[in-house]
Write a structure and sequence with these properties.
The chain has 321 residues and is an alpha/beta fold. It contains 11 helices and 11 strands. Helix 6 packs parallel to helix 9, helix 9 packs across helix 10 and helix 10 packs antiparallel against helix 11.
Protein backbone atom coordinates (compact mmCIF):
# COMPACT_ATOMS: atom_id res chain seq x y z
CA UNK A 1 0.00 0.00 0.00
CA UNK A 2 2.84 2.38 0.81
CA UNK A 3 4.40 1.63 -2.56
CA UNK A 4 1.17 2.56 -4.36
CA UNK A 5 0.96 5.88 -2.51
CA UNK A 6 4.59 6.67 -3.28
CA UNK A 7 4.07 5.94 -6.96
CA UNK A 8 0.99 8.15 -7.03
CA UNK A 9 2.83 11.04 -5.39
CA UNK A 10 5.71 10.63 -7.86
CA UNK A 11 3.26 10.66 -10.75
CA UNK A 12 1.69 13.92 -9.58
CA UNK A 13 4.93 15.77 -8.82
CA UNK A 14 6.73 15.89 -12.14
CA UNK A 15 9.34 18.61 -12.53
CA UNK A 16 9.94 18.39 -16.27
CA UNK A 17 9.45 21.26 -18.72
CA UNK A 18 6.18 22.94 -19.57
CA UNK A 19 5.44 22.08 -23.19
CA UNK A 20 3.21 23.78 -25.74
CA UNK A 21 2.51 21.27 -28.50
CA UNK A 22 0.53 21.36 -31.70
CA UNK A 23 -0.35 18.95 -34.51
CA UNK A 24 0.76 20.43 -37.84
CA UNK A 25 -0.60 19.60 -41.27
CA UNK A 26 0.21 22.07 -44.07
CA UNK A 27 0.11 25.21 -41.91
CA UNK A 28 3.03 27.15 -43.36
CA UNK A 29 1.01 30.38 -43.44
CA UNK A 30 0.39 30.46 -39.69
CA UNK A 31 2.84 28.13 -37.93
CA UNK A 32 5.54 30.80 -37.57
CA UNK A 33 3.41 33.27 -35.64
CA UNK A 34 1.97 30.54 -33.40
CA UNK A 35 5.43 29.23 -32.48
CA UNK A 36 6.84 32.71 -31.78
CA UNK A 37 3.80 33.68 -29.69
CA UNK A 38 3.94 30.46 -27.65
CA UNK A 39 7.67 30.45 -26.81
CA UNK A 40 7.56 33.15 -24.09
CA UNK A 41 5.00 31.19 -22.03
CA UNK A 42 6.56 27.70 -21.93
CA UNK A 43 9.91 25.93 -21.78
CA UNK A 44 9.48 24.04 -25.04
CA UNK A 45 7.36 24.33 -28.17
CA UNK A 46 6.78 20.99 -29.86
CA UNK A 47 5.35 20.57 -33.37
CA UNK A 48 4.27 17.19 -34.71
CA UNK A 49 4.37 17.39 -38.49
CA UNK A 50 1.63 14.96 -39.49
CA UNK A 51 2.71 14.28 -43.05
CA UNK A 52 2.77 17.88 -44.33
CA UNK A 53 3.77 18.53 -47.93
CA UNK A 54 4.68 22.20 -47.44
CA UNK A 55 7.35 24.09 -45.48
CA UNK A 56 5.63 23.96 -42.08
CA UNK A 57 8.37 21.89 -40.41
CA UNK A 58 11.23 23.98 -41.72
CA UNK A 59 9.61 27.21 -40.58
CA UNK A 60 8.76 25.86 -37.11
CA UNK A 61 12.27 24.49 -36.53
CA UNK A 62 13.94 27.69 -37.72
CA UNK A 63 11.88 29.73 -35.26
CA UNK A 64 12.83 27.60 -32.24
CA UNK A 65 10.36 24.72 -32.10
CA UNK A 66 11.21 21.05 -31.78
CA UNK A 67 9.72 19.09 -34.66
CA UNK A 68 8.65 15.45 -34.80
CA UNK A 69 7.78 13.94 -38.16
CA UNK A 70 5.12 11.46 -39.23
CA UNK A 71 5.94 10.04 -42.66
CA UNK A 72 2.22 9.77 -43.44
CA UNK A 73 -0.81 11.60 -42.12
CA UNK A 74 -2.11 9.76 -39.05
CA UNK A 75 -4.84 12.20 -38.11
CA UNK A 76 -5.36 14.56 -35.19
CA UNK A 77 -5.48 11.77 -32.61
CA UNK A 78 -2.36 10.17 -34.07
CA UNK A 79 -0.46 13.44 -33.61
CA UNK A 80 -1.77 13.73 -30.04
CA UNK A 81 -0.42 10.27 -29.22
CA UNK A 82 3.08 11.38 -30.21
CA UNK A 83 2.67 14.56 -28.17
CA UNK A 84 1.47 12.71 -25.06
CA UNK A 85 4.23 10.12 -25.33
CA UNK A 86 6.87 12.85 -25.54
CA UNK A 87 5.43 14.72 -22.54
CA UNK A 88 5.37 11.48 -20.53
CA UNK A 89 8.98 10.66 -21.39
CA UNK A 90 10.08 14.12 -20.28
CA UNK A 91 7.90 14.02 -17.16
CA UNK A 92 6.40 17.35 -18.13
CA UNK A 93 4.79 19.31 -15.29
CA UNK A 94 2.28 20.69 -17.79
CA UNK A 95 1.35 20.08 -21.42
CA UNK A 96 -0.63 22.60 -23.47
CA UNK A 97 -2.27 21.54 -26.74
CA UNK A 98 -3.20 24.24 -29.24
CA UNK A 99 -3.89 24.46 -32.95
CA UNK A 100 -1.20 25.53 -35.40
CA UNK A 101 -3.59 27.42 -37.68
CA UNK A 102 -3.75 30.55 -35.51
CA UNK A 103 -7.25 30.00 -34.12
CA UNK A 104 -6.05 29.92 -30.51
CA UNK A 105 -4.44 32.83 -28.69
CA UNK A 106 -1.06 31.75 -27.26
CA UNK A 107 -1.34 34.71 -24.86
CA UNK A 108 -4.02 32.66 -23.05
CA UNK A 109 -1.53 29.87 -22.24
CA UNK A 110 -0.81 31.24 -18.73
CA UNK A 111 -4.55 31.13 -17.96
CA UNK A 112 -4.65 27.43 -18.83
CA UNK A 113 -1.41 26.69 -16.99
CA UNK A 114 -2.39 28.33 -13.70
CA UNK A 115 -4.95 25.70 -12.50
CA UNK A 116 -2.54 22.89 -13.49
CA UNK A 117 0.49 24.31 -11.70
CA UNK A 118 -1.55 25.17 -8.58
CA UNK A 119 -3.02 21.63 -8.41
CA UNK A 120 -6.56 22.94 -8.82
CA UNK A 121 -7.19 20.84 -11.93
CA UNK A 122 -5.75 17.91 -13.84
CA UNK A 123 -7.14 19.05 -17.18
CA UNK A 124 -8.00 22.60 -18.25
CA UNK A 125 -10.07 23.48 -21.32
CA UNK A 126 -9.99 26.85 -23.05
CA UNK A 127 -13.70 27.43 -23.55
CA UNK A 128 -15.55 29.70 -25.97
CA UNK A 129 -18.80 29.32 -24.09
CA UNK A 130 -18.01 30.32 -20.51
CA UNK A 131 -18.18 33.91 -19.31
CA UNK A 132 -15.33 35.88 -20.83
CA UNK A 133 -14.84 33.51 -23.75
CA UNK A 134 -15.88 33.97 -27.35
CA UNK A 135 -15.44 33.01 -30.98
CA UNK A 136 -14.80 35.68 -33.58
CA UNK A 137 -16.65 35.21 -36.89
CA UNK A 138 -17.87 31.76 -35.90
CA UNK A 139 -20.40 30.46 -38.47
CA UNK A 140 -23.88 29.84 -37.06
CA UNK A 141 -24.01 26.27 -38.41
CA UNK A 142 -20.75 25.47 -36.66
CA UNK A 143 -21.96 26.88 -33.36
CA UNK A 144 -25.12 24.77 -33.64
CA UNK A 145 -23.10 21.64 -34.43
CA UNK A 146 -20.82 22.18 -31.43
CA UNK A 147 -23.82 22.64 -29.14
CA UNK A 148 -25.40 19.40 -30.38
CA UNK A 149 -22.17 17.41 -29.98
CA UNK A 150 -21.55 18.91 -26.54
CA UNK A 151 -25.08 18.02 -25.40
CA UNK A 152 -24.68 14.42 -26.60
CA UNK A 153 -21.27 14.14 -24.94
CA UNK A 154 -22.47 15.53 -21.61
CA UNK A 155 -25.33 13.03 -21.52
CA UNK A 156 -22.77 10.21 -21.38
CA UNK A 157 -20.63 11.73 -18.61
CA UNK A 158 -20.84 13.77 -15.41
CA UNK A 159 -18.39 16.47 -16.47
CA UNK A 160 -20.91 18.99 -17.84
CA UNK A 161 -18.39 20.65 -20.14
CA UNK A 162 -19.64 23.67 -22.10
CA UNK A 163 -17.09 23.41 -24.91
CA UNK A 164 -16.20 19.78 -25.57
CA UNK A 165 -14.83 20.64 -29.03
CA UNK A 166 -12.16 23.06 -27.92
CA UNK A 167 -8.70 21.86 -28.94
CA UNK A 168 -7.04 24.36 -26.61
CA UNK A 169 -6.28 22.24 -23.54
CA UNK A 170 -3.75 21.80 -20.74
CA UNK A 171 -2.86 18.57 -18.95
CA UNK A 172 -1.10 18.01 -15.64
CA UNK A 173 1.11 15.07 -14.63
CA UNK A 174 -1.76 13.00 -13.23
CA UNK A 175 -3.66 13.27 -16.50
CA UNK A 176 -0.55 12.64 -18.60
CA UNK A 177 0.23 9.45 -16.71
CA UNK A 178 -3.28 8.00 -16.65
CA UNK A 179 -4.96 9.11 -19.86
CA UNK A 180 -5.06 6.64 -22.72
CA UNK A 181 -6.94 6.91 -26.01
CA UNK A 182 -7.15 4.75 -29.10
CA UNK A 183 -8.67 6.77 -31.95
CA UNK A 184 -6.47 8.59 -34.46
CA UNK A 185 -9.16 10.91 -35.81
CA UNK A 186 -10.91 14.01 -34.53
CA UNK A 187 -13.08 11.91 -32.21
CA UNK A 188 -10.07 11.62 -29.90
CA UNK A 189 -11.06 14.98 -28.38
CA UNK A 190 -14.22 13.38 -26.97
CA UNK A 191 -12.46 10.12 -26.14
CA UNK A 192 -10.07 12.04 -23.89
CA UNK A 193 -12.95 13.71 -22.05
CA UNK A 194 -14.67 10.35 -21.57
CA UNK A 195 -11.44 9.00 -20.09
CA UNK A 196 -11.24 12.02 -17.76
CA UNK A 197 -14.74 11.19 -16.51
CA UNK A 198 -13.94 7.50 -16.04
CA UNK A 199 -10.69 8.28 -14.19
CA UNK A 200 -12.36 11.02 -12.12
CA UNK A 201 -9.79 13.61 -13.13
CA UNK A 202 -10.49 17.21 -12.16
CA UNK A 203 -11.50 19.17 -15.26
CA UNK A 204 -11.83 22.96 -15.33
CA UNK A 205 -12.84 25.40 -18.07
CA UNK A 206 -11.30 28.85 -18.44
CA UNK A 207 -12.41 31.52 -20.92
CA UNK A 208 -10.59 31.93 -24.22
CA UNK A 209 -11.32 33.48 -27.59
CA UNK A 210 -11.01 31.49 -30.81
CA UNK A 211 -10.67 33.02 -34.26
CA UNK A 212 -12.30 31.76 -37.45
CA UNK A 213 -10.80 34.30 -39.85
CA UNK A 214 -7.56 32.36 -40.31
CA UNK A 215 -6.27 30.29 -43.26
CA UNK A 216 -7.31 26.64 -43.02
CA UNK A 217 -4.75 24.07 -44.07
CA UNK A 218 -6.49 21.04 -42.62
CA UNK A 219 -7.98 18.43 -44.90
CA UNK A 220 -10.93 18.03 -42.54
CA UNK A 221 -14.12 19.90 -43.37
CA UNK A 222 -16.51 21.07 -40.70
CA UNK A 223 -19.11 18.57 -41.99
CA UNK A 224 -16.84 15.51 -41.89
CA UNK A 225 -15.40 16.57 -38.54
CA UNK A 226 -18.86 17.09 -37.06
CA UNK A 227 -20.22 13.79 -38.36
CA UNK A 228 -17.24 11.81 -37.05
CA UNK A 229 -17.32 13.38 -33.59
CA UNK A 230 -21.12 13.25 -33.27
CA UNK A 231 -21.11 9.56 -34.22
CA UNK A 232 -18.54 8.88 -31.51
CA UNK A 233 -20.63 10.82 -28.98
CA UNK A 234 -23.69 8.70 -29.78
CA UNK A 235 -21.72 5.45 -29.56
CA UNK A 236 -20.33 6.51 -26.17
CA UNK A 237 -23.82 7.39 -24.96
CA UNK A 238 -25.19 4.02 -26.07
CA UNK A 239 -22.40 2.22 -24.18
CA UNK A 240 -22.48 4.26 -20.99
CA UNK A 241 -26.21 4.90 -20.64
CA UNK A 242 -28.14 2.27 -22.63
CA UNK A 243 -31.33 2.90 -20.65
CA UNK A 244 -31.31 6.48 -21.88
CA UNK A 245 -30.11 5.82 -25.42
CA UNK A 246 -32.37 2.84 -26.20
CA UNK A 247 -35.03 3.08 -23.51
CA UNK A 248 -36.43 6.53 -24.28
CA UNK A 249 -36.80 5.90 -28.06
CA UNK A 250 -38.26 2.47 -27.25
CA UNK A 251 -40.90 3.90 -24.92
CA UNK A 252 -41.69 6.64 -27.45
CA UNK A 253 -42.19 4.11 -30.26
CA UNK A 254 -44.27 1.88 -28.02
CA UNK A 255 -46.48 4.82 -26.99
CA UNK A 256 -46.82 5.95 -30.62
CA UNK A 257 -47.78 2.45 -31.73
CA UNK A 258 -50.33 2.18 -28.94
CA UNK A 259 -51.85 5.55 -29.89
CA UNK A 260 -52.14 4.55 -33.56
CA UNK A 261 -53.61 1.19 -32.57
CA UNK A 262 -56.22 2.78 -30.31
CA UNK A 263 -57.18 5.22 -33.03
CA UNK A 264 -57.54 2.38 -35.52
CA UNK A 265 -59.77 0.47 -33.11
CA UNK A 266 -61.95 3.55 -32.62
CA UNK A 267 -62.43 3.82 -36.38
CA UNK A 268 -63.85 0.29 -36.74
CA UNK A 269 -66.96 0.45 -38.89
CA UNK A 270 -69.83 -2.04 -38.83
CA UNK A 271 -71.20 -2.77 -42.27
CA UNK A 272 -74.93 -3.26 -42.81
CA UNK A 273 -74.58 -7.02 -43.06
CA UNK A 274 -72.91 -7.19 -39.65
CA UNK A 275 -69.31 -7.53 -40.80
CA UNK A 276 -66.57 -5.34 -39.34
CA UNK A 277 -64.32 -3.14 -41.48
CA UNK A 278 -60.86 -2.23 -40.16
CA UNK A 279 -58.17 -0.32 -42.06
CA UNK A 280 -55.18 -2.66 -42.42
CA UNK A 281 -52.56 0.11 -42.81
CA UNK A 282 -52.83 1.74 -39.36
CA UNK A 283 -53.08 -1.64 -37.69
CA UNK A 284 -49.83 -2.88 -39.26
CA UNK A 285 -48.09 0.41 -38.50
CA UNK A 286 -49.14 0.16 -34.86
CA UNK A 287 -47.92 -3.43 -34.65
CA UNK A 288 -44.51 -2.67 -36.19
CA UNK A 289 -43.95 0.39 -34.00
CA UNK A 290 -44.97 -1.56 -30.92
CA UNK A 291 -42.63 -4.45 -31.72
CA UNK A 292 -39.72 -2.10 -32.41
CA UNK A 293 -40.39 -0.18 -29.20
CA UNK A 294 -40.49 -3.39 -27.14
CA UNK A 295 -37.24 -4.57 -28.78
CA UNK A 296 -35.46 -1.33 -27.91
CA UNK A 297 -36.72 -1.39 -24.33
CA UNK A 298 -35.60 -4.99 -23.95
CA UNK A 299 -32.18 -4.17 -25.44
CA UNK A 300 -31.76 -1.25 -23.03
CA UNK A 301 -32.49 -3.48 -20.03
CA UNK A 302 -30.12 -6.22 -21.21
CA UNK A 303 -27.28 -3.81 -21.95
CA UNK A 304 -27.80 -1.95 -18.67
CA UNK A 305 -27.68 -5.23 -16.76
CA UNK A 306 -24.56 -6.35 -18.62
CA UNK A 307 -22.84 -3.04 -17.89
CA UNK A 308 -23.64 -3.25 -14.18
CA UNK A 309 -22.43 -6.85 -14.08
CA UNK A 310 -19.16 -5.93 -15.78
CA UNK A 311 -18.54 -3.05 -13.39
CA UNK A 312 -19.25 -5.32 -10.44
CA UNK A 313 -16.79 -7.91 -11.72
CA UNK A 314 -14.12 -5.27 -12.28
CA UNK A 315 -14.54 -3.97 -8.75
CA UNK A 316 -14.77 -7.34 -6.99
CA UNK A 317 -12.25 -9.33 -9.03
CA UNK A 318 -9.69 -6.73 -10.06
CA UNK A 319 -10.26 -3.82 -7.70
CA UNK A 320 -10.98 -1.47 -10.62
CA UNK A 321 -13.80 1.01 -11.05
Amino acid sequence: MQTEVAEDVEAIVWDGPTIAAMPVFNEEETIGSVVLSSLPHVDTVLCVDDGSSDSSSRIARKLGAEVYHHRANRGYGGALKTIFRTAQERRSQALIILDSDGQHEPSDIPNLLAPILSGEADVVIGSRFVEGGGAESMPAYRALGIKVITAASNLSSDLNIKDTQSGFRAFGPKALERLNFEHDGMESCLEILNACDDLQLKVKEVPTKIRYDVPKGSRYTALSHGFTVFSFALISLSQKKPLLFFGIPGISLLATGAAIGMRALNEIETITDGTVSLSVGPGLTAAWLGMLGISLCFASLVLHGARRLMRRLLVEEFGLD
